[in-house]
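Sorry to interrupt, but I need a hand with the structure work. Could you write out one complete protein record for me, on any chain you like? Just paste the record in under my message, thanks.

. . .
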Amino acid sequence: MPPGRRGPLADSYPGAVALVVLSLVPFLLLTVAVLPLAPVLARGVGLSPKALDLVVALSDGAYAFGTVLAVQFAVHLRQRRMLLVYVSVFVVASALAAWAPAPAVWAAAFVVQGLCTSLMLIAAVPPLVTGWPPAKMPITGTVMNLCVFGAVAAGPTLGGLEAGAGVWRPLFVGVAVLALLALVFALLTWEDVGPADRDAPVDVIAIGLGAVGCAAAFFGAARLQTAAGGPVGAGALVPLIGGFGLLVALVVYQYLHSRPLMPVRALATTAPTAGILIAMFASAAGVGVMELVLTGLQPVTSPGHAGLLFVAELGAAVVSAGLFGALFRTRFTPVLALSGLALLVAAAAFAMGVTGPGYGGPTVVSAGLVGLGVGASVSPALFIAGFSLRTSQTQRVFAMVELLRGVTAFLVAPVLLFLATTLGASRAAGLRTGLWICLALAAIGGLLALGVWVAGGRGLQVPDLARWQEDDEPAWDSPPLLGRWRGRSGGASGGRASGGDRDRQGSKRRSSASWSGR
């Protein structure tokens, strides 16, 4: 579409919502659906179970790395044109994954699907958040919640039902159709947006650390998972530990950089730090419980029945998304996020009953608690971090949080599966050990986040959404870390708590604002 033209739905909020939903839901659904579908999928595409595990891990790693790459592209390239490229490549990859003429083709297509999803997320979501009046933001928060976790919650059910029917292709064909619809809405909502900051440096070091770190860490995690029950060699531990070390180095490097891709230093205040801790620990514990429960159900019931038991997770995710929308403009979003970790502690405790003979009830309760817990914590935590910085930094804040969340969500689960099948005198004992680890992760994450919040020395605040969207100022005050103990007050984020939302109806501003990260 020519630069001067605007799509017929460029000013349509439902059109922008549809674009985000269609961009994010397909692959995020697949990331969990492939777990119960793995035996059928491996036979269908011609891969061994170990090779399939490796492809799934690399696809998750590509999703995590894509957040870094998307920010670099947005700095120097026209953002809506790049979104069209991302969606177009996603359509081709989805079609190839559904067709799967050869194992290598399916594997490459699935990895590209993961990469394109995070590219689309960073390109499409911030304009939906920042480009519409504050009155729309509770709806946006609900939609984001359903996209980020609601799609994941539907994965066990859809994957289990397809596995029970002995088929895999219909799910991938459906994903390809949704991808094509995403391309249609990308064209209908077209509005050309320039680069964020052409004068910014190309951060080759950040790209290199992210690429090599994600590839190595997820490769090592896949090797570790396939070594379950046997000896662990250097081929698993070296890339896992080395890749994780590179990702830690990436965060440190961004903290020290004067013009970083992702504003790590600006995020190192009370509210965003607490939010990031909640997102990371909730993702690790929630996905870990989900995968361990699915693993525990494999020998005792059919995939289709297991999928039906997980309907409770999807229903609970919808409930938590609605609750987030209702609390979005109040001071209680941090309370909701912390309560999500408490619910995940309960989910891990109930999941231990899955290893016993009466697995049905504990599975339903645990799945429902996971849906409530992750839905109540991850998306709210994302906005807690976003509200603490200026609107013009939203894209980079989301990229940073999604990188850390993606690494913890998809990297911890394979390690837990390895431990569950290696530790203990039996499979059931190993699964319980893994669930105890998930319980500990949720509890530790909650205590750390609560400690950070209390040590900051500020109470709960009502986000000033109009100030955040229209004035490019933080929606609330985020004091320095340990501000109460250090005797310092005031927001390191540079904003004031307004005590309310003026809800002004200003002109819509797209995502082309300044990207000053200093």
